[in-house]
Structures are given as structure tokens and as C-alpha cells.
Design goal:
This protein has four helices and no strands. The chain is mainly alpha-helical. The longest helix is centred in the C-terminal third of the chain and has 14 residues. The chain is globular, with a radius of gyration of 12 Å.
Length: 60
């Protein structure tokens, strides 16, 4: 989130993408963060949104 606050959205997504989830639920959190770190004018693809929602539902 610190990278996003600095306007470094791509670096934030790269960091999220290269982090290996270890604990249950970390994949869902990473997908949610990745989606949140997108520039406002860049829509989330339907496939990415479905995957993110599926992971979040599994976490719940």
C-alpha cells in the first residue's frame, strides 16, 4: 500500500505477484490487493474479477 500511495502502482503489483502465498487465505488477499492497485482508469477483466471473487468466497 505504501507503493500505491507513492504512485508506484506497477511496482506494487509486481511485488504482490512475486510473493509466494504461504498461509491459507493469502492468495485471496493478494488477488484483492492486486485488483486494488490497478490504476483507476484500468478496468478489471471479467476473468480476473471472477478469480478474485472466487478466492475471496473460499476465504470466507
Amino acid at each position: 500500500m505504501a507503493l500505491v500511495e507513492q504512485g508506484l502502482d506497477q511496482q506494487a503489483r509486481d511485488l504482490i505477484d512475486t510473493t509466494q502465498p504461504v498461509e491459507p487465505g493469502e492468495s485471496a488477499i493478494a488477488l484483492l490487493l492486486h485488483t486494488h492497485c490497478r490504476p483507476a482508469h484500468t478496468p478489471v477483466s471479467e476473468g480476473d474479477l471472477d478469480r478474485t471473487l472466487d478466492e475471496a468466497i473460499q476465504l470466507r
